[in-house]
Design brief:
Helix 2 packs across helix 6. This protein is α+β, with helices and mostly antiparallel strands and about 190 residues long. A 4-stranded antiparallel beta sheet has the order 1-2-4-3. It has a single domain, classed as 3-Layer(aba) Sandwich (NADH Oxidase), CATH 3.40.109.10. It is globular, with a radius of gyration of 17 Å. About 30% of the residues are buried.
Length: about 190
């Protein structure tokens, strides 16, 4: 087991994976670790949908790209607009052709759901790094809206996708990018 401080530093966003399946039993272990995350009032509101089938991942990628391009018509997000060229590229897979995708979902009406599920996502990614796996939280892959696809994934109608995380065996683990100094706004003693 990796020392926690080292683990925080070795976890990277991986976008290049070996063409090798991640055993479902291992994904279940990562999910079990994710469920150790804290949550408001200990509600543990998260749900998990696992996709390890390339055809389905391609459909999900196309669905996300379509919805994001439609969103660009009304949203004035300069950051989102930077992605327009790759989103228009029919060969671009928002999930980086990873062998496995895990959606973490939470109830739409629960105020703390995004925070709770984000904590679970962090635990998931740290657990994966500890096992030599790479992950990447792919926000572009969260834009799945088609009710039929969501039903195929068994995502309840009252849930939304909070995190789309790809997981697999990395070809290369990227170097640690520079970090800014902490911006401490106040220390009141």
């Amino acid at each position: 087991m990796t020392d926690f401080r080292d683990l925080m530093r070795i976890r990277r966003s991986v976008r290049d994976y070996e063409d090798r399946k991640v055993p479902v039993s291992l994904v279940r272990e990562l999910i079990a670790d994710a469920c150790e995350a804290p949550s408001a009032s200990n509600r543990q509101p998260w749900g998990f949908a696992v996709v390890a089938e390339k055809g389905m991942m391609g459909r999900l990628s196309d669905e996300s790209k379509k919805n994001l391009l439609n969103d660009m018509k009304t949203l004035k997000s300069p950051t989102l607009r930077l992605y327009r060229p790759v989103l228009k590229d029919e060969n671009f897979n928002v999930y980086y052709n990873a062998p496995c995708l895990v959606f973490i979902t939470g109830p739409k009406g629960l105020h703390s759901a995004v925070k709770d599920c984000s904590l679970a996502a962090s635990y998931f990614m740290l657990s994966a790094a500890d096992r030599g796996l790479g992950t990447c939280w792919v926000d572009l892959g969260s834009a799945v809206q088609d009710p039929e696809i969501l039903a195929e994934l068994h995502i309840p109608e009252d849930h939304r996708i909070v995190a789309a995380i790809v997981v697999g065996y990395p070809r290369v683990i990227p170097e640690r990018p520079p970090r800014n100094e902490p911006r401490i706004l106040a220390i009141i003693e």
